[in-house]
């Protein structure tokens, strides 16, 4: 990993935070923009889950990770705390690989 | 009211302890970030610098995930920054509760993330909202960085695949996704984003499918019916 990435990400992430708290302040955004921005986490996080579960580089496939992430989804559905969800995901994947 | 006397106010004790407890559990989560970052080729210093300076979990995990998959710095950066943009929206919501000197507001900005905003928004009176923001923010900052350091040190000593740690990142994202699925609009955006990503993976350069998935936020355009934005608490974590 490069320091360029670390520092550029740090600068960009802080800029967004300052933009909200300090610069824009109490002004409101148009409702349509507000609704779309609120959906960024849902859209991006779902796509990262799919990528990290089913792909290796540009290849799609099914391996132990699918079972692990499936178990994590089950844990999330059962309202398990975040750390339990992570441990279940990694644990099931590791157990399948060890078989 | 000074910060210290506010902290001692018995009515605020539950808020303070909730903030510290949340920090502790997020610290454990940070351990998995430290491990994942080192597995993706970051040095311990880089993993720690990321947590100290970036301090927003989803963006950090996303950068690590793209780099681990062989993506470019540009695609890692753009995906992470898109995720970081929501902190700007939180800042808009928080700014009226965080009045004060510019220096205070600049520090508050760094602490404006999912958890501090949510804890603050859950309180009724302005004092409790302010205390919840600061206690949660500072507690998370301390534990997030401590956890990252521990994870990065442990991560360089083990083989991540043996322990299924490559699945820890998507599992962490599953935990982060869940609260986003409370509304029908959120579920549609997640489904569409996942679909776009899956379909484009074999055909476009690594890192781009996640950016293409951002098109799914257009689900937010139609004004539509209130059912789209109704919150179903059955889905919350």
UniProtKB/TrEMBL annotation, chain A:
Membrane spanning residue stretches: 80-98
Pfam families cross-referenced by the UniProt entry: AzlD
Annotated keywords: Membrane, Transmembrane, Transmembrane helix
This protein's name: Unannotated protein
Organism: freshwater metagenome
From TrEMBL, chain B:
Entry protein name: Unannotated protein
GO terms for biological process, alphabetical: L-valine transmembrane transport
UniProt family annotation: Belongs to the AzlC family.
Cellular localization per UniProt: Cell membrane
Topology in membrane: Multi-pass membrane protein
GO CC terms in record: plasma membrane
Membrane-spanning parts: 63-85, 131-157, 163-181, 188-221
InterPro entries assigned: Brnchd-chn_aa_trnsp_permease
Provenance organism: freshwater metagenome
């Amino acid at each position: 990993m490069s320091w360029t990435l670390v520092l550029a990400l740090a600068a960009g992430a802080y800029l967004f935070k300052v933009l909200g708290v300090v610069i824009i302040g109490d002004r409101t955004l148009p409702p349509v923009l507000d609704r779309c921005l609120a959906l960024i986490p849902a859209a991006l996080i779902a796509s990262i889950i799919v990528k990290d579960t089913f792909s290796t580089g540009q290849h799609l496939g099914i391996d132990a990770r699918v079972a692990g992430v499936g178990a994590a989804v089950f844990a999330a559905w059962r309202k398990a705390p975040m750390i339990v969800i992570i441990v279940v995901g990694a644990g099931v994947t590791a157990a399948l690989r060890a078989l | 009211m000074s910060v210290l006397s506010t902290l001692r106010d018995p009515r605020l004790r539950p808020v303070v302890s909730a903030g510290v407890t949340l920090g502790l559990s997020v610290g454990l989560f940070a351990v998995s970030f430290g491990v994942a970052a080192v597995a993706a080729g970051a040095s311990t210093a880089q993993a720690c610098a990321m947590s100290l300076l970036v301090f927003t979990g989803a963006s950090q995990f996303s950068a690590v995930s793209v780099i681990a998959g062989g993506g470019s710095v540009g695609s890692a950066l753009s995906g992470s920054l898109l995720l970081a943009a929501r902190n700007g929206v939180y800042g808009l919501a928080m700014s009226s509760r965080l009045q004060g000197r510019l220096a205070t507001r600049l520090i508050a900005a760094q602490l404006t993330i999912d958890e501090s905003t949510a804890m603050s928004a859950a309180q009724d009176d302005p004092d409790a909202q302010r205390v919840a923001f600061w206690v949660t923010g500072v507690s998370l900052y301390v534990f997030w960085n401590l956890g990252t350091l521990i994870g990065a040190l442990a991560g360089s000593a083990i083989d991540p695949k043996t322990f299924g740690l490559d699945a820890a990142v998507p599992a962490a994202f599953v935990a982060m996704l869940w609260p986003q699925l409370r509304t029908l609009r959120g579920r549609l955006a997640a489904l569409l984003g996942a679909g776009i990503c899956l379909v484009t993976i074999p055909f476009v350069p690594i890192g781009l499918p996640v950016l293409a998935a951002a098109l799914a936020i257009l689900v937010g355009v139609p004004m539509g019916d209130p059912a789209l934005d109704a919150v179903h608490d059955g889905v919350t974590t």
